[in-house]
């Protein structure tokens, strides 16, 4: 679960730390207090894009840190697949944001944002304010069915995708045979010319780099010769050369070695130095002689380099690519020489691959149908719990003519929320408030299937009130028995159901606006429920109603435990 959230210098937040608990965590507050900033900070830490403008005014950097304590074996196993292990049972995801860049870390080790997003998907599920709109799209509905199927359906999808890749490879090869006789002969002439050109060039591995290095050396030959000449002159036995000076110094020391014991040690060091300098001078002299005697092949090297680079430019590849190109073009030429036989071979391979693809797609469809039927019954129950009392819900599966990497199924959610209404696609009938409840039903069912430890809802209560709000609150509470739920709400029915209640407030002080987050006591929570019920003026009657709502919520939660 998500243990804590720490935010510093982000938007209106100066520095805040929130410690969450198991069960239902609810955050409430006035409109504009910064509730969405809190959820936004979680999304940013988990890999969402962030702009430098999010850094608090007059600050150089912002910092967000999430501490998780994952316990489910399946989640821990998936984390190991990413080579990530919790430390002391905790997983810390952090993000530092500056004007020039942002750095994401998991347990203090830097990771790209894409990897953080993958890891985050194992730890929690975040539902934003408008995410329920995605539910109307067929691709999202198919994704929900597939996710509900777990490991077996995932394996069937992967197998279908694998067979599709194989079939597509053979199909592309077969398509390459869709040429007439004139085109075949023209293509053969081109290939023969190109192969002659490549074989005549007879390029060897590393030749271009080797010739470039040699050309550079030869182009600077005079400069190199001058340097070696100067080196041998300075180090040699000519007047005032290093070896000459060492010899004089040795002579001077040898004359005093009998009178001064230390002189012998200095003498020995000088002879060693002379020997080293002599060796350097000899090697430099040999290199100088070799360079002066060698034949100058600069023009020949330039011509060869031009030939290689012309071919690289013509065929748009590097030297290694040219070497591979010869073999590829020989294979292509053989294909055109034995055109009909090769075409028949490709056709047979394509047909065999399609048979396997079709079998895999049919198997995937069958598994999807079973998963869709089970999911449908589970969603109906969840929808009834959310005050869709007379709901009818079906998952229709149609099939496209062509098979893709994901199979051939098109999934459409059909719903009728009132008696006497015909079933219609979800996109055609559901209002914003209804979509929010349907999404809650989906999330709560999927949380049980996918073993998600933390669910976050940003204003899932959009467009609802009264008894429906009470039903939503109850469903959130029930979901929180199996998964940690963090919810932003402005409805008293949901807030009163909180196991842990946080108040988000915005204060202005010294011409600086700051958002604060406070964990409320039972009495403070009652006053916040009263504020949501009664607005600016909280009377005794409103307080009594708020207390009664809290008491009713507690009784509801107790009854959930005993079930």
Question: How would you summarize what this structure contains?
Answer:
The protein has a domain at 2-129 and 449-519 and 554-562: 3-Layer(aba) Sandwich (Rossmann fold).
Distance between the termini: 24 Å
Average predicted confidence as pLDDT: 86
The number of helical runs is: 19
Shape type:
flat
Per CATH, the superfamily of one domain is P-loop containing nucleotide triphosphate hydrolases
Number of strands: 15
CATH fold description of one domain = Rossmann fold
Low-confidence stretches: none
Q: Tell me the major beta sheet.
A: 6 strands, antiparallel
Assess the beta-strand content as a share of residues: 15-25%
CATH architecture verdict of one domain: 3-Layer(aba) Sandwich
Cα Rg: 39 Å
Order of strands across the widest beta sheet?
Answer: 2-1-4-5-6-7
CATH C-level label of one domain: Alpha Beta
Quickly give the structural class: alpha/beta
Question: Helix proportion of residues, in percent?
Answer: 55-70%
């Amino acid at each position: 679960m998500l243990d804590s959230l720490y935010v510093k210098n982000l938007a209106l937040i100066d520095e805040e730390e929130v410690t969450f608990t198991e069960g239902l965590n609810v955050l409430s507050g006035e409109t504009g207090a910064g509730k969405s900033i809190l959820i936004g900070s979680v999304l940013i830490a988990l890999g969402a894009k962030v702009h430098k403008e999010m850094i608090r005014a007059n600050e150089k950097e912002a910092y967000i840190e999430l501490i998780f304590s994952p316990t489910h074996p399946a989640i821990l196993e998936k984390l190991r697949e990413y080579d990530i292990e919790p430390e002391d049972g905790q997983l810390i995801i952090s993000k530092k944001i500056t004007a020039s860049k942002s750095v994401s870390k998991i347990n203090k080790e830097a990771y790209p944002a894409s990897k953080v997003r993958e890891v985050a998907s194992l730890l929690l599920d975040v539902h934003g304010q408008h995410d329920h709109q995605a539910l109307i799209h067929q691709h999202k509905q198919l994704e929900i069915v597939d996710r509900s199927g777990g490991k077996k359906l995932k394996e069937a999808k992967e197998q279908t995708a694998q067979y599709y890749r194989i079939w597509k490879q053979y199909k592309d090869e077969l398509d390459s045979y869709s040429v007439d006789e004139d085109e075949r002969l023209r293509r053969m002439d081109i290939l023969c010319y190109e192969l002659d050109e490549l074989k005549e060039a007879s390029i060897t591995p590393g030749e271009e780099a080797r010739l470039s290095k040699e050309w550079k050396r030869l182009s600077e030959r005079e400069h190199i010769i001058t340097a070696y000449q100067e080196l041998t002159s300075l180090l040699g036995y000519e007047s005032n050369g290093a070896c000459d000076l060492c010899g004089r110094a040795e002579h001077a020391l040898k004359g005093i070695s009998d009178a001064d014991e230390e002189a012998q040690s200095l003498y020995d060091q000088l002879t060693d130095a002379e020997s080293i300098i002599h060796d350097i001078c000899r090697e430099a002299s040999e290199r100088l002689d070799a360079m002066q005697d060698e034949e100058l092949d600069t023009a020949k090297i330039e011509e060869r380099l031009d030939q290689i680079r012309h071919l690289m430019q013509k065929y748009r590849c590097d030297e290694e690519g040219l070497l591979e190109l010869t073999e590829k073009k020989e294979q292509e030429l053989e294909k055109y020489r034995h055109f009909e036989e090769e075409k028949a071979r490709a056709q047979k391979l394509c047909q065999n691959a399609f048979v396997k693809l079709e079998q895999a797609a049919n198997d995937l469809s069958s598994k999807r149908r079973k998963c869709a039927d089970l999911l449908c019954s589970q969603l109906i129950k969840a929808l009834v719990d959310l005050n869709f009392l007379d709901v009818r819900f079906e998952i229709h599966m149609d099939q496209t003519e062509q098979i893709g990497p994901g199979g051939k199924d098109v999934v459409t959610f059909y719903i009728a929320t009132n008696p006497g209404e015909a079933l219609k696609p979800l996109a055609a009938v559901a209002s914003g408030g209804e979509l929010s409840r349907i999404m809650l039903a989906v999330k709560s069912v999927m949380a049980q299937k996918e073993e998600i430890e933390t669910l976050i809802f940003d204003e899932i209560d959009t467009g609802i009130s009264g008894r429906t709000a009470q039903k939503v609150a109850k469903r959130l509470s029930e979901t929180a028995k199996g998964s940690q739920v963090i919810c932003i709400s402005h409805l008293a029915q949901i807030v009163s159901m909180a196991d842990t209640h946080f108040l988000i407030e915005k204060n202005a002080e010294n011409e600086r606006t700051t958002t604060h987050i406070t964990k409320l006591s039972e009495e403070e929570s009652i006053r916040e429920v009263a504020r949501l019920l009664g607005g600016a003026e909280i009377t005794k009657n409103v307080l009594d109603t708020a207390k009664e709502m809290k008491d009713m919520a507690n009784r509801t939660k107790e009854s959930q435990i005993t079930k």
